[in-house]
């Protein structure tokens, strides 16, 4: 029998193009670095806490399990047509609000003076992480259906504020989570701007949001101390400025090459929560300027590919959703770095894909799976 030439072979039908490899590689690279840093930065706390029975790898092993779960979620989301989320967006959003409100009931769990978790048996669930992605999906669906009305105040902009931004702000405010509220507000602001919202409306809303945040900070002494400490952390370096000052010491002592993996000194009870709220400080101390440049390069690659996917998406929903997911990741990353470098008041915001936290890692990997599906459909459309 004669062999058929390669050009005669028929292309398999129904086979979708591959996902965006650069985006996938950048995300996996960040997560692997994050796993290493969770292990390194959590070792002192884990080995000394009697609850973990001397298991220095306690946090690392839990984060590894969440990574596997997140990898499965990302793979599944990358296979589901992203337009499916448009159909169920209202249900997802309402369920996320109910979960967020449940934190204020007896189901809520308080840790480190903050009540932001729900005990689901095997782990603690942080509803705010679910609320963030649900709000982004819902706003993307809302704008794609009302894109001709987004420049109008009543039918477009105000409606988005009343059903999306304000309910989220209220629930996050009840949890005393102004950091997440501000981060989500900036993300939704970017989406509304891309969606055609008038700058007059956006500017006024932004000013009102900043004023409300400042007022809420002023009414709580501990919040206001964060603001005043940010202006000069060394003024009270043994008090309220302690964690920021120690973070700056960690970043500064890293130098060009860093102290080396596992060689951080600040993680030994100088910086609170070194594996979550201040993980970037420990990373900078151990890997120095070169390590920081590599990680920032990976995040820049995520931003580049995410916004490129948004520009090339086949429909407005895919475009808005890609902008929302990418902005959510980049805004949170920017805030985390700003906090640990004393460029803004402390907020308790973790670093996406790097910091310890099961709900955050799984939800963000799931969101990246959606973004990968948009890229797959985008490529199919262009072929």
TrEMBL record:
It catalyses: [GlcNAc-(1->4)-Mur2Ac(oyl-L-Ala-gamma-D-Glu-L-Lys-D-Ala-D-Ala)](n)-di-trans,octa-cis-undecaprenyl diphosphate + beta-D-GlcNAc-(1->4)-Mur2Ac(oyl-L-Ala-gamma-D-Glu-L-Lys-D-Ala-D-Ala)-di-trans,octa-cis-undecaprenyl diphosphate = [GlcNAc-(1->4)-Mur2Ac(oyl-L-Ala-gamma-D-Glu-L-Lys-D-Ala-D-Ala)](n+1)-di-trans,octa-cis-undecaprenyl diphosphate + di-trans,octa-cis-undecaprenyl diphosphate + H(+). Pathway: Cell wall biogenesis; peptidoglycan biosynthesis. GO terms for biological process: cell division; cell wall organization; peptidoglycan biosynthetic process; regulation of cell shape. Pfam families: FTSW_RODA_SPOVE (PF01098). Its main location: membrane. The chain crosses the membrane at residues 21-39, 59-78, 90-109, 121-144, 156-172, 201-219, 287-307, 319-341, 353-374. Keywords: Cell cycle, Cell division, Cell membrane, Cell shape, Cell wall biogenesis/degradation, Glycosyltransferase, Membrane, Peptidoglycan synthesis, Transferase, Transmembrane, Transmembrane helix. Coiled coil: none annotated. One of its GO terms (cellular component) is plasma membrane. It comes from the Bacteria. Its EC number is 2.4.99.28. It is found in: Cell membrane. It is a multi-pass membrane protein. It is an enzyme of class 2 (transferase). GO terms for molecular function: lipid-linked peptidoglycan transporter activity; peptidoglycan glycosyltransferase activity. NCBIfam families: ftsW. Belongs to the SEDS family. FtsW subfamily. Peptidoglycan polymerase that is essential for cell division. This is Probable peptidoglycan glycosyltransferase FtsW. It comes from Andreesenia angusta. The gene is ftsW_1.
